[in-house]
From TrEMBL:
One of its GO terms (molecular function) is glycerol kinase activity. Residues 92-240 form the Carbohydrate kinase FGGY N-terminal domain. InterPro entries: ATPase_NBD, FGGY_C, FGGY_N, Rhamnulokinase. Belongs to the FGGY kinase family. The keyword Nucleotide-binding applies. It comes from the Bacteria. Residues 249-440 form the Carbohydrate kinase FGGY C-terminal domain. This is Rhamnulokinase. The keyword Kinase applies.
Length: 475
């Protein structure tokens, strides 16, 4: 049995978890939780990397203190796509936030050189206006830089001095060849990006190296090794889904709802491209064939707005009121790009309703219900599309991440899918991070299924059965 520390940075909060892994043991203890508050400067919306790094260090110190023995390793995961640029080992500016509206400036530039259909055939990636490739194409710092590191790689580099590109997350840049999982050097050339930005690729499970001596003393340890895991949080979350059948779909539901299936190879058809499905890299060479649904961001940003306007009931109270709503509420298109940037979500929902000749939600409870119904409808459509596009027939949907705690959302998802929903584990991402570290340390052996058996035996899911007569969605 070993103890490891997982740093999991989410778009709205981060956490550090002490994990205990053995052949029949998998336990997590959260030792730190901290907000992730973006900062707006003159040039746009940024992540507060300094604050996140400081909080990660405090958390690692707490993990080391709480661990009964020395930590076998530590590893970092976070959201995808966003990056820092370095020159001679110095970070050039704070990373931008993918919700910064100017991030999309490079889309046209890239598509003028490499049309989207060709791009999809090479990188297998769904179109998101903030994919790294588009951000880089319009980033003036690129010409000064000699290295590009995505956020978790950047944190690991600060801890160890080792700067490499972990593959699951690199697969979200748009610059990785979906077939070979190597940097697409020809594409990089055609886009006029400096080749040297894209360095050594490593797989989840690789050892990066020990933390720098001054970090070790700050953490109160004599030595701590940092590993690469599936540093893309969604890839770690998919490791933590107790998936055992090729008839199972998953929804990794947090800020985003990532809806899809796990495959052995990519699906690069026109239909998959038009449905905006992505082929992101998973652990052990698996493919995460999924699409991004707007997710709980819609709800949290709505509640943030109400709080700014002078207080609001707790999330629990709002969800209870939403569950009691009996009248009709609008089902709006959560994928409308107007919902991507921060701002007044109820006003945007009302504007969408006005444009589509439907009545907007009447009050707060109806707004929450409308958001959850609309998310559930989008989840159901995406599950059906994932099945259709991959040629599978799906008979169960796993919901993992924070959304698994939202019983109303899980029930509505079961209703609209017409399929049972198995909710949990809530902490799938941290579990995936810890499991891959545990495997590297030899505390658990085998393939992904062996890791998932450990999840299944230690974390009982909650089952939601579709209610008769409820609204089913077809693709
Ligand atoms: C979820 C996630 C998604 C990615 C989005 C932006 O946290 O990592 O997978 O598309 O954030 O990076």
């Amino acid at each position: 049995m070993v103890h490891v520390a997982a740093v999991d940075l989410g778009a709205s909060s981060g956490r550090v978890v002490l994990g205990e892994v053995g052949p029949d043991r998998l336990r997590l203890q959260q030792v730190a939780r901290f907000p992730n508050d973006p900062v707006r400067t003159d040039d746009g919306l940024h992540w507060d990397l300094e604050a996140l790094y400081a909080a990660a260090l405090d958390g690692l110190r707490a993990a080391a203190a709480a661990s009964p023995g020395p930590l076998a390793s530590a590893a970092v995961d976070s959201w995808a796509v966003d990056y820092g640029l370095l020159r001679h080992g110095e970070l050039l500016g704070q990373p931008f936030h993918y919700r910064d509206e100017a991030r999309a400036a490079g889309v046209e530039v890239v598509h003028a050189t490499v049309p989207h259909a060709e791009l999809y055939g090479r990188n297998g990636l769904q179109f998101l206006p903030f994919n790294t490739v588009y951000q880089l194409a319009a980033d003036p710092l690129v010409e000064k830089a000699d290295q590009m590191l995505l956020v978790p790689d950047l944190v690991a580099w600060r801890l160890t001095g080792v700067g490499v590109n972990e593959r699951t997350n690199a697969s979200t840049t748009g610059l990785l060849d979906v077939r070979t999982r190597q940097w697409d050097r020809d594409l990089i050339d055609r886009l006029g990006l400096p080749q040297e930005l894209f360095g050594e690729l490593v797989d989840a499970g690789a050892t990066l190296g020990p933390v720098r001596p001054e970090i070790a003393s700050r953490l109160g340890v004599s030595r701590l090794v940092v590993n690469a895991v599936a540093t893309h949080d969604t890839a770690s979350a998919v490791v933590g889904v107790p998936l055992f059948s090729d008839r199972a779909a998953y929804i990794s539901c947090g800020t985003w709802g990532l809806v899809g299936v796990e495959l052995d190879g990519p699906v690069l058809t026109d239909a998959a491209r038009e449905a905006n499905f992505t082929n992101e890299g998973g652990v052990d060479g698996r493919v995460r064939f999924l699409t991004n649904v707007m997710g709980l961001w819609l709800l949290s940003e709505t509640i943030r707005g109400w709080e700014r306007a002078g207080g609001t009931p707790s999330l629990e109270a709002l969800l209870a009121e939403a569950a009691d709503v009996t009248g009709p509420v609008p089902v709006f298109d959560v994928q409308d790009p107007r919902f991507l940037p921060p701002g007044d979500m109820p006003a945007r929902i009302a504007a969408w309703c006005a444009e589509h000749d439907v009545l907007p939600p009447a009050d707060r409870a109806a707004t929450v219900r409308s958001i959850l119904e609309s998310l559930a409808a989008a989840f159901a459509t995406s599950v059906a599309r994932a099945a259709e596009l991959s040629g599978r027939s799906v008979d169960v949907v796993h919901v993992v991440g924070g959304g698994a705690l939202n019983a109303l959302l899980c029930q509505l998802t079961a209703d609209r899918c017409g399929l049972p929903v198995l909710a949990g584990p809530v902490e799938a991402t941290a579990l995936g991070n810890v499991l891959v570290q545990g495997r590297s340390a030899g505390a658990v052996t085998g393939d992904l299924e062996a890791l998932r058996r450990l999840v299944a035996t230690t974390h009982q899911p909650r089952r939601f059965t579709p209610r008769p007569g409820s609204a089913r969605v077809s693709p």
